Amino acid sequence: MTDTPDKRFTSAPPSGSWTDFLYSAKFRSWVSQIVVLLLLLWGLYEIVVNTQANLARLNKNFGFDFLGKQSGFDLSTALIPYSSTSTYGRALLVGFWNTALVAGLGIVFATILGFIIGVMRLSKNWIVSRFALGYVELVRNVPLLVQIFVWYALVLKPLPGTKQAYTFFGDSFFLSNRGLLMPHPQFGPGAWLGLAGLAAAITGIWFLRRRARLVLEATGKATPTFWPSLALLIVLPLLGLLAAGWPLTWSFPELAGFNFKGGMTLVPEFIALFLALVIYTASFIAEIVRSGILAISHGQTEASQALGLDNSKTLRLVVIPQAMRVIIPPLASQYLNLTKNSSLAVAVGYPDLMYAGGTVNNQSGAAIEVFSIVLVVYLATSLFTAAFMNWFNSRMKLVER
Amino acid sequence: MVAFVRTQDAPVAPPPANMTGAWAAAKQKFFPTPLSSVAGVIIAALVAWVVWTLIDWAVIRAVWSAPDRELCNAEGAGACWPYAFARFHQFIYGFYPVEERWRVNIVFLLGALSLAALLIPSIPRKGLSALFFFVIYPVLTGILFVGGMFGLTYVETTQWGGLMVTLVLSVTSMVASVPLGILLALGRRSTMPIVSLLSTIFIEVVRGVPLVLVLFMAVNMFPLFMPPGVNPDKLLIVIIGMALFAAAYMAEIIRGGLQAIPKGQYEGAQAVGLSYWKMMGLIVMPQVIKIVIPSIVNHFISLFKDTSLVTVVSILDLLGVVQSSFNDAKWASAQTGNTGYFLLAVVYWLFCFGMSRYSQFIERKLATGHKR
Asked: B316 or A178: which carries more pLDDT confidence?
C-alpha cells in the first residue's frame, strides 16, 4: 500500500486562468448590477419618450409655470387667505396646511384616546376591559374609509340647518349642517406681550419642575407642580395682555341670512375625517400601549406596590416610563399612518393636500407635475416625522452603564 | 440563640368573610376599585344604549318588505332591508351580465375550496393546493372573469363590481405582493450596492406616501407612460398599483424576518456548498416565512381594508357599488344610506375579524415549534 499524498495538498495552486475571473462572485455581482441598471435606464427612457409623445398629442407642456396661474376654484376651508382668484400654488399650500391641521390634531387626540383605551384593556374591572377589547376589535376591522363615510352620513348630515342650529354657551357656539362655529380671537397691536407672557410661563414651568426634581432627589419630598404650572400658564399671558391694554377681541359667529358670518368654522368634512381618524388610529395605539405595558415585568409593579405607591402612581411613575421604550417605535409608525390616512379627505371633500392636488390636476391637467409635488411633500413629511421619532426614541432609550 | 421554636402548624384560619362566595367574586370582577366601578357603570349604560339603539333601528323599527322606497322614507322608519335584498346581487357582482354570473360563482366556489384546503392544517397535500391556488387558480379566474375565449362571451372590466372586485383586488395584490416583497427584501439586504440602493429607494418612497396618492398617480400618470395608442385597462392599472404598494410593505415584513435568522444558518448553507438562491430558497426563506406569517396575515387584513380606497378613483368595488346605489331613484330614501353603510361595516368586519382570528390560531400553532 503506497502512501501517495493527496494531490490537493501537494500540487501547486491551480494557475490562474482567465475563466476564473468570469466565475468570481465580484464579476458576477457587477454584471448583474449593470444589467439591472441598464434595464432601469431603458425603462426610464421609454417612459420619457412615451410621455413626451403623449403630452405632445394632448397639446400639453411639461413645466411648473401653471403654479402661478389663477386657480378659479374655491376650497371650503383654508387656514391662510385663499379665494378662487388665488394661484394653483396657493391652493396646494392651503391643502398642505389643512393636512397639517387634521393630522396634528388627530395625532394628539388619537394618542390620548389610545392610551385611555389601552390602559382600560388591562383594567381589573371586567366591564371596563371587555369594553376596551370590544372597541378595538370593532373599530380596527372596519375600513377607515367606511368609517369616515359613516361619521359623515350618520352623524353630520342629520344636523339641523343654520336657522335651527344647536347653540351652546349663549349663542357663541353653533352646531349645524355647516359645521361647528366657534368664536375666533382677534389680536390687535401689542398682542405680542401676551405671547411673551406665554413664553415666560413656559420658562417658569421648566424651572419649577427642575427645582421640584432637585428637591425630590435631595430630600425625597415631592413638591406639587401641576397646579402652580397651570396657574402660571393662565396668569402670565393674561398679565401680558393686560399690560398691553387688552388688545384681544372675539369675533362671534352670527346668523346672517342663510349662513353664518364671523367666527371660526370647523366644516363637517373636517369633523367627520377627524373623528374617524382619531377613533380608528386609537384602536391601533391602544393595542400598542397594551402590549407595551404587558412587556414590563410584573415584578416592577409588585416592587412599586411594595414601596407603597398606589395604582395610579405605579402606572404613572414606574410602568409607563419603562413601557414607553417599547411603545414609541410602533407609535411613530401609527403617527405616519394617520398622516397618510388623512389623504382619505378626498372622499368627503375636505380640502387637504391630496384633494387640492386632485382638483388642481383636474383644472390644469398637469398630472405629472402636480402629483410629483404632492408625492415630495408627503415623502418629506414622512421622512421628517420618522427622523424626529428616531431622535425622540434615542432620548427615551434605556441608558445603561 | 433561638428563644422559641414552633412545633406545630398555626391553625388554618378561614378566609375573610368578604372574600368568599358569589357576591365577593362578582365584586372582584365588576367593582374592584371605586373609580373603575363608576367607569364600569357608565360604560355599561352607554353600551346598553348603543346596542338598544341598533336593535331598535335594525330590527324593531326596520322595514322588512316593501316594493319601493315609500315605506323606508316614512317618519320613524328604521333600516330599509328591502333595498338591501333588491340590490343584493349588484353588491356581489356589480354590473356583471346576469346570464354570465355563474362564472363568478364557480370562481368563488373554487376559491373557497382551495383556500380551505390551503388554510386548514389537517388537510394534507399543501403543496398541491398551493400550486393550484397560486398558479392555476389565478389563470382560471382571469379566463372565467374576462372571457372572450373557449366560447365564453367577453365581459369588460367596467362591468365588474361589488364584492367580486374587492376580492379580485385583494387576492391579486396579496398573491403578487409575496414574491415581489421577497425579491425587494433580498435586494435591500443584498451586498450589491446598486440593487440595494434601488430596492431601498422603492420601498421607502412607496411606504412614505398614502395609497390614495399611489392610486391617483397610477390612474392619471400611468397611461401617459404607455406608448401612444395603448390604453391599459383601468382596473388592471389599479391592481398593479395596489400590488406594488403591498409589495413594499411586504418587503419590510420579510426583511424583519430575515434579520431574525441567525447568521449560522447562512454559514451552514454556504459550508455545504449551496448557491445563493438555493441557500435562500431551501434554508433561509422557509424559516423566515414561518416567523412572519402572523405579520403577513395582519398585512393582508389591512390590504383588504385598503381595497375600499379604490372607490376614490371611481372603481366600483363593494364600497363603490353600495354608495352608487344610494342615488338609485327607486330606493333613495332617508334610511338607504344608513342601511348600506351598516351592511358594508358588517361585511368588512366579518372578513377582517375572520382573518385576524385565523392569524391568532396559526400563531399559536406555529409557536410550538419555537418553544424549547
From this structure: B316
User: Which of A32, A47, A354 is opposite residue B192, by nearest beta carbon?
Assistant: A32
Sequence length of chain A is: 401
Could you read off the pLDDT of A99-157 as tens digits, one per residue? Answer: 888 999 999 999 999 999 998 888 888 888 889 999 999 998 999 999 998 888 876 67
Nearest to A231 by CA among A201, A206, A259: A201
What is d(CA B115, CA B110) in angstroms, rounded to the nearest whole number?
8
Residues on chain B touching A120 (C-beta within 8 angstroms): 39
Query: Taking 80 as the threshold, does the pLDDT of residue B46 lie above it?
Result: yes
Substitution target from A138, A146, A281 for chain B, most B beta carbons within 10 A: A146
Query: Nine-digit cell at B179?
Result: 414574491
Distances (CA, A) of A95 to A76, A103, A378, B309: 11, 12, 12, 20
Residue B30: per-residue pLDDT: 79
- The reply to whether residue B211 touches residue A340, judged by beta carbons under 8 angstroms, is yes
In angstroms, the Cα distances linking B354 to A40, A135, B297, B357 are 41, 16, 11, 5
- Range name among A43-57, A130-144, B320-334 with the lowest pLDDT average: B320-334
Kindly determine whether residue A379 and residue B210, on different chains, have CB atoms separated by under 8 Å: no
- Spatial separation of the C-alpha atoms in residues A178 and B322, rounded to whole Å: 26
- State the average pLDDT over residues B342-360: 89
What are the residues facing A325 on neighbouring strands? none
Cα–Cα distance for residue pair B72/B82, rounded to 1 Å? 9
Contact A354 B212 (CB under 8 A): yes
Cβ-proximal residues to B166 (8 Å cutoff; 6+ apart), any chain: B304, B307, B308, B317, B318, B319
Nearest chain A CA: its distance from B97 CA (Å)? 27
Q: Name the strand (E) or helix (H) holding A255.
A: strand A254-256
**Residue among A36, A137, A357 minimizing CB distance to B353:** A137
Predicted TM-score (pTM) of this structure: 0.84
CB contact under 8 A, B213 and A126: no
Separation in Å, CA of B33 to nearest CA in chain A: 8
- B158-177: b or e for each residue (b if 16 or more CB lie within 10 Å)? eebbbbbbbbbbbbbbbbbb
Domain ranges within chain A, ordered by starting residue: 88-181+268-396, 184-251
Amino acid found at B238: V
Q: Which residues of B touch A343 (CB under 8 A)?
A: 210, 212-213
Show the DSSP H helices in chain B as ranges: 21-30, 34-55, 81-93, 101-119, 126-131, 137-146, 163-189, 193-208, 211-225, 234-259, 263-271, 276-278, 285-306, 318-324, 336-367
Nearest to B356 among A141, A143, A382 (CB): A141
Class of domain A88-181+268-396: mainly alpha
B198/A36 Cβ within 8 A: yes
Q: What distance in Å separates residue B156's CA from the closest CA in chain A?
A: 25
The interface predicted TM-score (ipTM) is 0.85
- Name the strand (E) or helix (H) holding B69: none
Counted across chains A and B, CB pairs separated by less than 8 A come out at 160
Q: Which residues of B touch A36 (CB under 8 A)?
A: 194-195, 198
